Amino acid sequence: MQLTCFKAYDIRGRVGENLDDAIARRIGTAFAYVMSEKVEGDVRIVVGRDCRESSPALAEALIEGLLDQGADVLDIGLAGTEEVYFATAHLGAAGGLEVTASHNPKEYNGMKMVGPSSRPLDPIAELAEIRHFAEQGELPEVQPKGRYATTDVRAAYAAHVCDFIDPDCLKPLRIVVNAGNGTAGPAFDAIAGELHRRGAPLSFIRVNHEADGRFPNGVPNPILRENHSMTAEPVKAEGADIGVAWDGDFDRCFLFDDEGNFVDGEYIVALLAESFLLDRVGETIVYDPRVVWNTRAAVDELGGTAVMSRTGHAFMKAKMREVNAVYGGEMSAHHYFRDFAYCDSGMIPWLKLVEFLSRIDRSLSNAVSHMRQAYPSSGEINFAVPDPQAAVEAVVTRLGPEALTIDSLDGASLTFDNWRMNLRASNTEPLLRLNVETRGDRELLHDRVSYLTDLIERTACASV
C-alpha cells in the first residue's frame, strides 16, 4: 500500500482520498514501533489535535494504532502543534503527534511529529522508516496493549510561555488577536489569564476567536493578502497598538503594525533578534537564506553572532542546537527558541515583540520604518514551473558571471553590489520561490523583480 500523504517533513492529505482513519491507525502503529527503538522502558506518546471536523476521528484512529503497538498515550485533546511540542518535552515522552493540516483548506488534514525532547524526525531515516512500516502494515502484535490517559498541560504551557517576558517592563497596550477560527483561541485565553495574574497591563480585542473547523471566515492562513483585512481593519477601527493573527495550528503568527500594515517576516526576525540581544550580547541568532541583509545588520549592531541555516524546521532546529542559538527565525513566520526545546512557537513571538516595543518605547510602525527603507524586499514570489531546478540553473547561468558571490546552501543566493536574490525550489510543492532585496533602492527592487520574473517565465516556456 503506497501512502501519498507522507510529505518532506510531515503528513498531509485530502481526507477520504489519501488520508483516512485506517491510514491514521497504520501511522500510529508504525510511529510507536519506530519510537520504541529509541527509548528504554515504557513508550509514552503525546497526542493532540486541531479543530478540524475530521480531526477527532483521525486522532482516535491514530491513538488506537499507538495503543495496539504497546505505546502509552497521553491525550492532550484540542491543542496547537506547539502545545504538543511542549508536552512531549515537559512530560519526558518518547514522541508527540499533532493531528493538523495547519493552514490548508478544511478538506485536508495531516500530522506533525516529533521524537524524544521534541526533536524533529530525520526525514531520510525516521520519517522514511515510519512510512515504510505504515505502508507494509505487518508489524508483530504486541501484548499488553498500551495504556490511555488524558492529561492537561495547558496551565504549565501558558506559564512557560509567559516566562519569556518580564511583565513589569510592559506598557499598557491594546492588541487585536485573530485566531481565524482555528485552534489558537483556548491556548491564547490561558496565556491572557496568566498575563493578567502577573499584572501585565495588556488589553485584547478578540477576532474570529471561537474554534470552528468549518472555518466560516475563510481558511486561517494570514499570510495571504486577501486575509490581511480581517486583522488590519480591527487594528485601525480600535486604535490598537498591534495586531496578531495565527494560522490553523498557531505554530506561526503574523504581525500588523499600529497603522494596520502587515509586517513582512524578515523584519520580525530582526526585531526578535534584537529583543534577545538587548540583554544577551554575544548570543547566536540563526536565520534562513531567503532575505538576510536586514537581519545581519540588526544582529551585528547589537554584538550578536548571525548564522545562516537551510530553510525548513528540521534544518533550523539542527543548526540552532549545533551553535547553541538563543533564537532562530524564518521569514515565513516560523520562530524557534532555545528555551522552548528549540521548537517553533506562534505565541512567544508576539509576547517578545510587545515586551521589546515597551522597552524601547516605540510603536511597531516606527520600529520597522527604517528597516523597510534601508532594506526593501519583494516578499516571496512563487512560480509554477515544470522543472524548478532547471529554472534555478538557468538563472544562475545567466546572472552568475555578474555576481559577487554565489551561495548554494539553499537553492541559489546571488549577491551583487546593492541587490541580492535567493531562488529555490520548494521542499513541499512543485513551485519555484523567489526573494529579492536591495540596499535602500525600491526602484532597483522593482526593476530586478520584473527582470527575474520575465527570465523565469521565459525559461519555463522554453522547457515545456
TrEMBL record:
Residues 6-125, 156-260, 264-372 form the Alpha-D-phosphohexomutase alpha/beta/alpha domain. GO terms for biological process: carbohydrate metabolic process. InterPro entries: A-D-PHexomutase_a/b/a-I, A-D-PHexomutase_a/b/a-I/II/III, A-D-PHexomutase_a/b/a-II, A-D-PHexomutase_a/b/a-III, A-D-PHexomutase_C, A-D-PHexomutase_C_sf, A-D-PHexomutase_CS, Alpha-D-phosphohexomutase_SF. Keywords: Isomerase, Magnesium, Metal-binding, Phosphoprotein. Its cofactor is Mg(2+). One of its GO terms (molecular function) is intramolecular phosphotransferase activity. Belongs to the phosphohexose mutase family. This is Phosphomannomutase. It comes from Rhodovulum adriaticum.
